[in-house]
Amino acid sequence: MLAVCPQCEVHFSPEVGICPGCEVYRTPLDSTVEYETIQAESLISSGRSKDELLINLVHKGFSELSADQILSDAGQRVRRTNRRTGSYRMVTGTSLMMAGGLLGAVSMGILTLYGMLAIGFTLFLAGLIQFVTGANLG
Ligand SMILES: [Zn+2]
User: Fold this and answer.
1) Per the domain annotation, does 35 fall within a domain?
2) 124: number of Cβ within 10 Å
3) From ligand 1's centre to the CA of 12, what distance in Å?
4) Which of 25, 26, 117, 132 could pair with 19 in a Cys bridge, judged by C-beta atoms 3.0 to 4.6 Å apart?
């Protein structure tokens, strides 16, 4: 997410904090918080420890309170994303199982078909031998 300077309409990373065009316009804290929350979200989901992220945020000039807020927001978003991924997996799993079941039913049908063909062929063959040889195969 980029910040936009209202004066020169330059798009820039809010992490920079100040417009590189005019060097006057500063990004409002909100967009920086939003930016940091998004950053923290991806860092948390890639397995970074919250303590490490907290220290980083404090180094960037956030108070410990707002750093904490950013991290708990980010944590909530990660959980929400994970839940969404989980539900997608459940849906995919369910449809795979249904497809598998359907395929199983179809292949059972094929087996029945082959079975009937095999029995039919055996009967036909026996009949043919009986016809040709005139023997009673019983
Ligand atoms: Zn500017």
Assistant:
1) yes
2) 10
3) 10
4) 25
pTM above 0.70, yes or no: no
- Helix, strand and coil content of the chain, in percent to the nearest 5, comes to 70, 5, 25
25: domain range?
Answer: 3-99
- Report the C-alpha dihedral over residues 104, 109, 113, 118, rounded to 10 degrees: 40
Ligand 1 (ion): which residues have CB within 5 A?
5, 7-8, 19, 21-22, 25
Question: What's the 35 CA to ligand 1 centre distance in angstroms?
Answer: 19
Q: How many domains does the chain have?
A: 1
pLDDT in tens, 10-39: 888 877 778 888 988 888 777 788 889 999
